[in-house]
Specification:
The structure holds two protein chains of two kinds.
Chain A lengths: L1 H10 L3 H14 L4 H15 L5 H4 L6 H8 L5 H7 L4 H10 L2 E4 L7 H7 L5 E5 L19 H10 L5 E5 L5 H10 L5 E5 L2 E4 H10 L5 E5 L2 E3 L18 E3 L9 H9 L6 E3 L6 H10 L5 E3 L9 H12 L6 E3 L21 E3 L7 H8 L7 E5 L3 H11 L5 E5 L14 H10 L5 E6 L4 H10 L5 E6 L14 H10 L5 E3 L6 H10 L5 E5 L5 H10 L5 E5 L5 H6 L1 H4 L4 E5 L5 H10 L3 E6 L15 E6 L12 E4 L7 E2 L5 H21 L1
Parallel strand pairs in A: 1-2, 2-3, 3-4, 4-6, 5-7, 6-8, 8-9, 9-10, 10-11, 11-12, 12-13, 13-14, 14-15, 15-16, 16-17, 17-18, 18-19, 19-20
Antiparallel strand pairs in A: 20-22, 21-22, 21-23, 23-24
Helix pairs in contact in A: 1-2, 1-3, 2-3, 5-7, 8-9, 9-10, 10-11, 12-13, 13-14, 15-16, 16-17, 17-18, 18-19, 19-20, 20-21
Chain B lengths: L1 H9 L13 H9 L16 E2 L20 H9 L5 E2 L4 H11 L11 H13 L5 H12 L21 E6 L6 E4 L6 H13 L19 H6 L4 E7 L4 E3 L5 H7 E8 L8 H29 L1
Parallel strand pairs in B: 3-7
Antiparallel strand pairs in B: 1-2, 3-4, 5-6, 5-7
Helix pairs in contact in B: 5-6
The chains are: A alpha/beta, B alpha+beta.
Subcellular location (chain A): Nucleus
GO molecular function, one term (chain A): auxin binding
GO cellular component, one term (chain A): nucleus
Chain lengths: 663, 299
C-alpha cells in the first residue's frame, strides 16, 4: 500500500512527500531490502527528474539523506548488502553502523574493524571453535579478547556493549573496559574464561551506567563474593544481572540493596549459594522481574517461610523465564505453580525433578515456548508436554546419567516422536538419547517439516538403528529432505557415506553441521563440501576421511567461516598444499608433535581452517602450527604471547606520539 | 606436555580405544584398509567390543549382544593384536580398566564443561540422599567424560599446569598475572617481575599517565636494597615478604602478590615531582594528538 501511494506522489511531482513515504517504507521493510532498493532507485529517478540517470544510483544523493535512510536498517546482513552497492553507500553505511558482529575473532584484525566502524556502540565477538566447549581445543589455543578491547579503547571509546563468546578474557581486559569506555552499559560473557571476580569488581565499581552484566556458563576464578559490594550506591540503572556460574556466596544484604535500588531490573539469575530465604527477600523487592534464575532450592523451610515464599512467587506477575532450581526438592515444586501459566521459557536442566512432579509442573505451563529438561522426564513426560505445551518452539533434553544402569531405558526415541506430533510450532531440538531408529526419524520429519535446528546425539558412537541394525542413513535422509529450512544439524549414530550424500543433496540451507564418529571414506566430506551450498561451519571429529576430499573442495572453504577436523586422516602434506593454494585461509594444525619430526603423510591430530583477511595470527602457542604461504619457509611457530605484543605496541605508540612533535 | 600426548593419542586418528603405546605406523596401515571395506553392521562370532572406554556402551551391553562396532573396526582389532577386548557384560571391570588405561574419548558425549561440573557437584552434594546422585557419579566416571578444567583431568595434563597469580604494583593502575609454575626460583620470579614492571615504563601507559620507574635490578628487588619490595598474600590473608620460605612452600601458599614502594615519603618528593612532570607532559602530548585528529576529521 505504501508503494502505491509513493508512486502516486511521484507521478504528481511531490518530491518531499515521496521521500517521507520512502522513509516510512524502509522502516517497515527491513528484510525485503533488495527489491526495495531497486524501487527506491526507480522512484528517485522519477521524482528528481533533473538528475541524470548516471547519477541515480545514489552517487550524488546528499549524504545526510542517505545516512538518514540507512540508519533505519538494523540487520547486519542487510547492511552488508548496502555496503556493496557503491563506494559512497559503503562509506555512509560504515559511518552509521552501531552494532558490529564478528563471527571469528581471527578473521579480521581489531584495528581494521575499529577503523571501519568509528561509531560502533556494540561489539559481538566469537573466539574459539564450537568444539572448544567439549574440551577438544587445548588450553592456550587463543581467542584472546585483549587485542580487541585495546583497539576499541583507542579508537572507539564510545563503545557501550561488549558481548563475547568462547574467548579468553583476563582481569586486565575487564579493568581496561571499565577504565576506557565511559558510557559502558552491557557486558555479556558466554563460555568465557581467564578472569576472576576481581575483574568483575572493577566493572561493578567503575561503570556508572551499567545495565547488563551477564556471565553465562563462564569459568571464573572465584576469589570470594565481595565483588558484588563494589556496585556503588548511585547505580540504579541495572536491568540484568546473571552470576549463576560463580560458586562463592555473595553478601545477601548487598544484593538486597542492589535489587531495591534497581527499579528497571528485569532479569536476575542467582548462583547456587543463594538460599531460599535470600530468594524470598529478593523477590519481595523485585516483583517486576521477567527472568529469574533461582539459587539452590533445597533448604528446610518451616510453614511460615514456605507461605512467604509462595506469596513472593505469586507476586511475580510478569515472570516469563525461570531457571536455576538446583537441587529442588519435590515438595517445593508447588511453589512454582503460580508462575507457570505465564511462563514462556523454563530451564530445568539443572533441576533434579523426577517424573510425576515434572508432569504436574509442565501441565500447567500452557504458554511454554522453550523447555530445557534432563532425561528424567522420560517418554511419558514428553507425551504430557506434547499434549499441554502447544506453543513449544524449542526443546532440549540433556542426559542425567540416571538410567544407564537399568535395562529399561525410560527416555527413548518415542519421546521425541510424540513431541513432534503434538507441538506444531516446534523448530529447534537438542536431544540426547541412548539409541534411535530410522522409523522414528522418518516420523519426526514427516510430522515436523519446520525444523530449523535439529541436533540429535545418540550417545553411543556407531550405534545403528536398534531394531533393524541398519545405519541411520534413511532417517537423516528424511530429515534433510523434508525440513527445507534446516539451518543447523548434528548427526550421530551409525552413518555411512550415503547419509552425507543425502545431506549434500538436500540440505541446501544448512549453515552448521556437526559430525562425530561417522562415514566411511573421503566421499563423505566430498558430498558435504560440494553439496551444501549455505554451509558456513563444519565440525568433524573421529571420521575416516583424508586428504583427497579436502583438497578437491578447497575453494569451498573460503565461502565458509570455519572447518574443524580432529582425529581424522588428514596429513600434514595436504595442509601445506591447501595453505599454498588458498592464500586467504589460515590452516592451523594443532598437534603436540612438530610437523617436521614426523613423516609428511602421517595424520595430524587436529586442524582448524578458517577464512581470514588478517593473515596468520601472532599469538599462537607452541602446539599450533600455521602453514606459511611460501613453501620455502615451511612451518613457522610464532609463539609471541599477547602480553609481549602489548609491550611492543606501547613502545611504538609512544614513539608515534613523540614523532609529530619534532616535525 | 605428557598429558597432551596421552589424551591426544587416545582420541587420535586411530579409532578410540587403541592404547597409546601402539606404533603409529601399524595403526595407519590397518586403518587404510578400512576405507575400502563396505560397512556391515553385525560381526558374528566374537562379542568383542573395542575398549571404546566411553563406558556408554558398557551400560547397554546386556541388551545388545550384536556388536556396536563396525566390521571395519573389528578388522582393525583383529589385525592389531595389542588392542584390548573386553566382554561386554563385565561392566565394573570394563570401567576400571578403561579408567586405568585412561582411554577417554575427549569431549564425548558433547556436553559443556560447565554442565558436567554441575552434574558432578550435584552428585557430591546429594551423595547421601538420592540414588540419582550416585548414578550421576557413576555416569561421569564410567563414561570417562572428561569433566572439568579445574581438576586434574585437564586436557594438557602435566605437572606444570599454569598457576596464575595476580601481581599489582603501587602506582600502576593495571595489575598483571604471572605464571608461577613456569618459574623455578625466586631469581626467576624477580627477573620476570623486573621485565614486566620495570624495564619498559610505557607498558602500563594509559590516559591516566605513565610513571617513571627507576631502573631496578632483579637482585635488588629481592634483597631489599632497591626502592621496591615484593610481598605476597598467603592463604591466611597475611602479607609476607617474598624470599623467606622455600620456593615450593611459597608456591603452595601464595594467593596474590604486590610490589610495594619502601620510600617513606609518598607522592611528593624527588620522584613524585618527576612523576607529576612526566604525567602532565604526556597529557599535553595526548591533547595535541587528539586535536590534530579532530582537525583532520573536520576537513
Amino acid at each position: 500500500m505504501g508503494a502505491s501511494s509513493t508512486l502516486l506522489m511521484v507521478s504528481h511531482g511531490h518530491c518531499l512527500l515521496c521521500f517521507s513515504c520512502l522513509v516510512t517504507l524502509i522502516a517497515h521493510f527491513e528484510s525485503h531490502l533488495k527489491p526495495f532498493l531497486f524501487f527506491l532507485s526507480i522512484s528517485l529517478s522519477l521524482s528528481f527528474r533533473r538528475l541524470s540517470v548516471s547519477v541515480l544510483m545514489g552517487l550524488r544523493l546528499p549524504s545526510k539523506v542517505l545516512e538518514h535512510i540507512i540508519s533505519f536498517i538494523d540487520a547486519n546482513e542487510d547492511r552488508n548488502s548496502v555496503s556493496l552497492v557503491c563506494k559512497s553507500w559503503f562509506e555512509t553505511e560504515r559511518r552509521t553502523r552501531r552494532k558490529v558482529f564478528v563471527g571469528n575473532c581471527y578473521a579480521v584484525t581489531p584495528a581494521a574493524v575499529a577503523r571501519r566502524f568509528p561509531k560502533m556502540r556494540s561489539l559481538t565477538l566469537k573466539g574459539k571453535p564450537h568444539f572448544a566447549d567439549y574440551n577438544l581445543v587445548p588450553d592456550g589455543w587463543g581467542g584472546y579478547a585483549w587485542p580487541w578491547i585495546e583497539a576499541m579503547a583507542a579508537k572507539t571509546p564510545s563503545l557501550e556493549e561488549v558481548r563475547l563468546k568462547r574467548m579468553v578474557v583476563t582481569d586486565e581486559c575487564l579493568e581496561k573496559i571499565a577504565a576506557s569506555f565511559k558510557d559502558f552499559k552491557v557486558l555479556v560473557l558466554t563460555s568465557c574464561e581467564g578472569f576472576s571476580t576481581d575483574g568483575l569488581a572493577a566493572i561493578a565499581a567503575t561503570c556508572r551506567n551499567l545495565r547488563e552484566l551477564e556471565l553465562r556458563e563462564c569459568i571464573v576464578e572465584d576469589l570470594g563474593g565481595d565483588w558484588l559490594s563494589y556496585f556503588p550506591e548511585t547505580l540504579t540503572s541495572l536491568v540484568s544481572l546473571d552470576f549463576s556460574c560463580l560458586d562463592s556466596e555473595v553478601k545477601l544484604s548487598d544484593l538486597e540493596r542492589l535489587v531495591s535500588r534497581s527499579p528497571n531490573l528485569k532479569s536476575l539469575k542467582l548462583n547456587r549459594a543463594v538460599a531460599l530465604d535470600g530468594l524470598e527477600s529478593l523477590l519481595r523487592r523485585a516483583p517486576q522481574l521477567v527472568e529469574l534464575g533461582t539459587g539452590s532450592f533445597s533448604d528446610d523451610l518451616d510453614q511460615e517461610a514456605l507461605s512467604k515464599l509462595a506469596k513472593a512467587f505469586a507476586a511475580l506477575k510478569q515472570l516469563k523465564c525461570l531457571s536455576g532450581l538446583w537441587d529442588v526438592l519435590p515438595e517445593y515444586i508447588p511453589l512454582l505453580y503460580s508462575v507457570c501459566p505465564r511462563l514462556t521459557s523454563l530451564n530445568l536442566s539443572y533441576a533434579t525433578v523426577q517424573m510425576p512432579d515434572l508432569v504436574d509442573l509442565l501441565s500447567r505451563c500452557s504458554k511454554l515456548q522453550k523447555l530445557w529438561v534432563m532425561d528424567l522426564i522420560e517418554d511419558k513426560g514428553l507425551k504430557a508436554v506434547a499434549s499441554c505445551c502447544k506453543e513449544l518452539r524449542e526443546l532440549r533434553v540433556f542426559p542425567s546419567g540416571a538410567d544407564l544402569d537399568e535395562t529399561d531405558v525410560a527416555l527413548t526415541e518415542q519421546g521425541l516422536v510424540s513431541v513432534s506430533e503434538g507441538c506444531p510450532k516446534l523448530e529447534s531440538v537438542l536431544y540426547f538419547c541412548v539409541q534411535f531408529t530410522n522409523t522414528a526419524l522418518v516420523t519426526i520429519a514427516r510430522n515436523r517439516p519446520n525444523f530449523r535446528c535439529f541436533r540429535l546425539c545418540v550417545m553411543e558412537p556407531f550405534a545403528p538403528d536398534y531394531r533393524t541394525q541398519k545405519p541411520l542413513d534413511e532417517g537423516f535422509k528424511a530429515i534433510v529432505e523434508r525440513c527445507k529450512d534446516l539451518q543447523r544439524l548434528s548427526v550421530s549414530g551409525l552413518l555411512t557415506d550415503k547419509a552425507f550424500e543425502y545431506i549434500g543433496k538436500h540440505a541446501k540451507k544448512l549453515g552448521m553441521l556437526s559430525v562425530a564418529f561417522a562415514g566411511d571414506s573421503d566421499l563423505m566430506l566430498h558430498h558435504l563440501l560440494s553439496g551444501c551450498e549455505s554451509l558456513k561451519k563444519l565440525e568433524i571429529r573421529d571420521c575416516p576421511f583424508g586428504d583427497a576430499a579436502l583438497l578437491e573442495n578447497a575453494a569451498k572453504l573460503e565461502t565458509m567461516r570455519s572447518l574443524w577436523m580432529s582425529s581424522c586422516f588428514v596429513s600434514f602434506d595436504a595442509c601445506k598444499i591447501l595453505s599454498q593454494k588458498m592464500p586467504r585461509l589460515n590452516v592451523e594444525v594443532i598437534d603436540e608433535h612438530p610437523p617436521e619430526t614426523r613423516p609428511e603423510s602421517s595424520p595430524v591430530e587436529r586442524i582448524y581452517i578458517y577464512r581470514t583477511v588478517a593473515g596468520p595470527r601472532l599469538d599462537m602457542p607452541e602446539f599450533v602450527w600455521t602453514i606459511h604461504k611460501t613453501p620455502e619457509i615451511g612451518v613457522s611457530n610464532l609463539a609471541i604471547k599477547h602480553c609481549c605484543g602489548r609491550f611492543t605496541f606501547h613502545t611504538l605508540y609512544l614513539i608515534s606520539i613523540l614523532f609529530p612533535l619534532r616535525c | 606436555m605428557n598429558g597432551f600426548r596421552d589424551v591426544c593419542s587416545s582420541s587420535g586418528p586411530v579409532m578410540i580405544g587403541v592404547p597409546p603405546a601402539d606404533e603409529d605406523e601399524d595403526e595407519n596401515a590397518a586403518l587404510s584398509s578400512e576405507d575400502s571395506s563396505c560397512p556391515d553392521q553385525s560381526v558374528s562370532g566374537t562379542e568383542a567390543e573395542l575398549d571404546l572406554a566411553l563406558g556408554l556402551s558398557i551400560g547397554l551391553n546386556s541388551r545388545r549382544n550384536h556388536s556396536k562396532v563396525r566390521s571395519s573396526l573389528s578388522s582393525l582389532s583383529s589385525s592389531s593384536s595389542s588392542l584390548t577386548r573386553e566382554s561386554g557384560t563385565k561392566r565394573s571391570a570394563d570401567s576400571s580398566v578403561a579408567a586405568s588405561k585412561g582411554h577417554v574419548a575427549v569431549g564425548w558425549p558433547p556436553l559443556r564443561t560447565y554442565r558436567i561440573n554441575s552434574l558432578v557437584n550435584q552428585a557430591k552434594s546429594l551423595a547421601n540422599e538420592d540414588g540419582l546422585s550416585s548414578d550421576i557419579q557413576k555416569y561421569t566416571t564410567k563414561n570417562g567424560v572428561v569433566a572439568t578444567k579445574k581438576d586434574d583431568a585437564r586436557f594438557i595434563k602435566s605437572s606444570k599446569t599454569p598457576m596464575l597469580v595476580k601481581v599489582t604494583m603501587d602506582g600502576v593502575i593495571i595489575g598483571r598475572k604471572i605464571d608461577l609454575n613456569a618459574l623455578d626460583s625466586y631469581q626467576g620470579l624477580a627477573k620476570t617481575l623486573e621485565h614486566m614492571f620495570f624495564q619498559i615504563p610505557s607498558s602500563v601507559a594509559n590516559t591516566q599517565g605513565c610513571r617513571t620507574i627507576k631502573e631496578t635490578n632483579a637482585s635488588e628487588l629481592l634483597d631489599g636494597s632497591s626502592e621496591y619490595i615484593i610481598t605476597y598474600q598467603d592463604k591466611d590473608e597475611d602479607w609476607m615478604l617474598v624470599g623467606d620460605v622455600p620456593w615450593q612452600m611459597f608456591l603452595g601458599s601464595v594467593k596474590r602478590m604486590r610490589i610495594m614502594r619502601t620510600s617513606s615519603e609518598t607522592g611528593v618528593g624527588k620522584y613524585g615531582f618527576l612523576y607529576i612532570v612526566k604525567a602532565t607532559l604526556f597529557q599535553i602530548v595526548q591533547m595535541m594528538v587528539r586535536r590534530d585528529k579532530r582537525r583532520q576529521e573536520q576537513t
